[in-house]
Amino acid sequence: MCLAVPMKVTAVEGDELVVELHGVTQRARRDLLDDVALGDHVLVHAGYAITVLDAEEAAATLDIFAALEAAGGGR
Amino acid sequence: MADFANAAFQSREAAQHLAAQIAALAPAHRHVKIMHVCGSHEHSLVQWGLRALLPPGVELIAGPGCPVCVCPEHEIREAIALADRGCLLTTYGDMLRVPTAAGSLADAAARGAAVRLVYSAADAAKLALAQPEREVVFFGVGFETTAAPTAALVLADPPPNLSVLTAHRLTPPAMQLLLRAGEIEVDALIAPGHVSAIIGSEAWACLPAEFGLPTTVAGFEPVDLLLAVRDILAQLRDGRAELSNGYARVVRPAGNARALAALNTVFEVGATWWRGLGELPGTGLLLRPAYAALDARARFDLNLLPEPDEMPAGCRCHEVMLGRITPPDCPLFRAACHPLRPHGPCMVSQEGTCYLWHQYGDAGALAA
User: Fold this and answer.
1) What is the ipTM of this complex?
2) Which domains does chain B carry?
3) Of the four, A25, B145, B231, B290, which is 20 to 30 A from B188 by CA?
4) What letter would DSSP give residue B246?
5) Which helix (H) or strand (E) holds B52?
6) Test mutation, A68, A69, A75, chain B, max B CBs within 10 A
7) Which residue among B121, B249, B256 places its CB closest to the CB of A54?
8) Which tens digit of pLDDT belongs to each residue from B163-194?
């Protein structure tokens, strides 16, 4: 029940967002967000956007993975 | 450009490096039991076969993280009663087939009652607008992630023919109570990523503080979960018990302020029943009196009482939910209990541990 996917906001229309992932477009309610802008990625859960994703934190996590590869197992 | 669906989150190489680090960190002469409390985490674990990457002494078990599974019978029977009385009963898909002594919602639909699966609470409002002559009930089940949308529905001026039958529960206080009572015995906890998107990572600070359990908030990609295991093993090696957040791209320390405000406006915290676990004080989200007009229990004068012994005969779902046994330990698993004829709730829900182990197999056994 907590499956949720990150989707990109392509339009804001009243109480709803138009969101897109891999070419699939759907609508999501924006009641639970304070601020959301075009181009933001939001986590959509049961038809509601529940958070705006943080690009810097995503990049930081990806950096951890890159470091793993560079360390070749890192033991 | 932000890339949240980066293939690196599912990278085989990263997973292999992490598995090697996890093997090196695993204590030689001690068994480590790590619990997660999220059906979606269990889904990722079995889908990706991650248990097969863990050394034999590191056990990852599912806790009470499937909201469908912990929903007590009397709440499902309330929903069935409303459908039988002619209401259009809407709810999330997993709820339809959960068996009770009075049958399931799907059985009610089969005898002509109007039961409709919805993807979103907002869809229930749309149905109510489209059918103004009909009473529409939204049966809202789940933890904080689905409770917040139910609160948003209540606050969005719903049509007068809509009411809500709420069965929402809180996860951190339930874990606290079960740990205090000794019902759950584990060495560390992986906290649920999307519940934490609502309540914030800091909501789990009680676990390291009160119980000395390393606790880490994790996402749902395979590498997210392996990072969580590595972090926990490093904490155990160092004798640390801290809260960490490996899912910071989604989870803030204080959560989603607007969602928490909506929850607090609509609900008050009180005691509620958990299927197979009994009544747990301070773990239920109950509609505040100000919203009684929207409360299906008040509108239709429902007063079904909880039944303490409500597990189907022989069903060991409650032991699975407490992490005491795994599904193959139950003699009904894959025999009398099967997704086509589920005996207990854990075999019904797509987030139920028994259903998932049936669908994907037991990756832990493959590794042994």
Assistant:
1) 0.90
2) 7-67+180-245 (3.40.50.11750), 69-171+255-299 (3.40.50.11740), 318-362 (no CATH)
3) B145
4) S
5) none
6) A68
7) B249
8) 999 999 999 999 999 999 999 999 999 999 99
